[in-house]
Each structure stands twice: as C-alpha cells, then as structure tokens.
Amino acid sequence: MIENAIAQRIQTLLDASGMNLAEAARAAGIPYHTINNLWRRPSAKLSADNADRLAGILGTTSRFILFGEAPAPADRRSAVVAMYDEFDDETRRKLEDYALFLASRRFQSGG
C-alpha cells in the first residue's frame, strides 16, 4: 500500500495512462529517484515545479497532484484532451464511439 498521498494520486494517474513511473519521470525530465522517493517515504514532498511537469505528462493539474484538488472545468477539459492525445488509436476510437453514443442518447431524450 502506498502511504504518501501524492504518490497515491500519481499512481492512479499512471495506471490510467498506462505509463510506469520511470517512463513518466523520463518524459517529465525529472530524475527517477526524486519521484520514487515519494513511494519510499510517507513524508516525502514534491516541488511545485516537478508537480507541474508531471501534471503536463499525466494530463492533470499540479494542484491535483499536490493537494488532490479537482481541476476546474476548463482544466478538466484540457486534461481530458491531453489524455486523449496520449492514447493509442484503438482507445481513441472507443472514446469517440462512446462520445457519439452519449450524444445520441442526449439528442433522443431532448436534452
């Protein structure tokens, strides 16, 4: 079990993205041991700069990573678009199909 709350949030984002910690650290330009320290020490912290770099890679905000604050609606949209851009073609197709399905249901219900 991950004891550090920041590490828990990062792990959730990693699981959703399909990346592992080393890949995310490399993509964000952060030394692996800096991020891995969060998994080893419950009291470890992450700098705002590193949180911002990770947020960009993982399609969220640094405030979510550091404090668990849900992104504002505009930030959520940007985060979803950023995640979409990272998905493979098959996953994108499934998301597009689901969005069309939801839109058709909304149209059918008059909403």
Automatic annotation (TrEMBL):
Q: Which organism is it from?
A: Paragemmobacter kunshanensis
Name-wise, this protein is Helix-turn-helix transcriptional regulator
Q: Which InterPro entries match?
A: Cro/C1-type_HTH, Lambda_DNA-bd_dom_sf
Judging by the UniProt lineage, the source's domain of life is Bacteria
Looking up SMART domains in the UniProt record yields: HTH_XRE
Q: Which residues form the HTH cro/C1-type domain?
A: 10-65
Q: Entry's SUPFAM superfamilies?
A: lambda repressor-like DNA-binding domains
Q: Which GO terms describe its molecular function?
A: DNA binding
Kindly name one Pfam family recorded for this protein.
HTH_26
The record's annotation in CDD domains points to: HTH_XRE (cd00093)
Where do the coiled-coil regions begin and end? none
Signal sequence residues? none
